Fold this sequence. Notes:
The protein has a single domain (3-185), classed as Hypothetical protein af1432, CATH 1.10.3210.10. Helices cover 64% and strands 0% of the residues. It contains ten helices and no strands. The radius of gyration is 15 Å and the shape is globular.
Amino acid sequence: MDLEQAKRLVKEILPEKRYIHTLGVIESAQYLAEKHNVSIEDAELAAALHDMAKFHDKQEMRRVIIENNLDPVLLDFHHELWHAPVGAVFAKDKFGIINEDVLNAIKYHTTGRPQMSQLEKVIYLADYIEPGRKFSGVENVRAVAGQDLNEAMKIALKQSIEFLISKYQPVFPDTLSGYNEYVQKEK
Length: 187
Ligand code: DGI
Ligand code: FE
Ligand code: FE
Ligand code: FE
């Protein structure tokens, strides 16, 4: 599947606003991939598909998680986290994507995780900094992401965790482990 096909497919699935967000993520992913020597084709495909399950029925997402033996801890967390791993299952089963790195970039785009590949970081960050994102703190990450993926991940994970904590929201374990890795890696 190429980028144009992927865009056409998600355009049919997603509401207009989310489709526009997706176009922004594609643009940022292309930029970051080019800067960091990551496959641009992989980055744009993962970006195009990353939110494909965003508006999928909650009960059906629960079923997909159980049937595919995905991390059962997901079910203890807000269903907002489910669209990423479920999207990866759909990309594989419905769209025939077999590239594991692309599938993992979709799977971990919301929570992050330790030991992320360069492509996974590019997609996580592209989702965070795409031109439509306006929240405070986004400029920090935008400024750094083109230069240093690890530093940008460290800031993005810190800010995401701070944001969740400020609302007394639970933080998914992978997000915390990912953050720990970047601060422990500190040169
Ligand atoms: O799908 P997007 O809106 O483009 O962005 P996303 O997939 O990165 O995040 C979706 C939502 O998930 C966002 O509102 C924040 C939330 N989220 C991310 N990590 C965690 C989380 N929510 C909880 N409770 N815990 C997390 O660790
Ligand atoms: Fe998402
Ligand atoms: Fe995100
Ligand atoms: Fe997104």
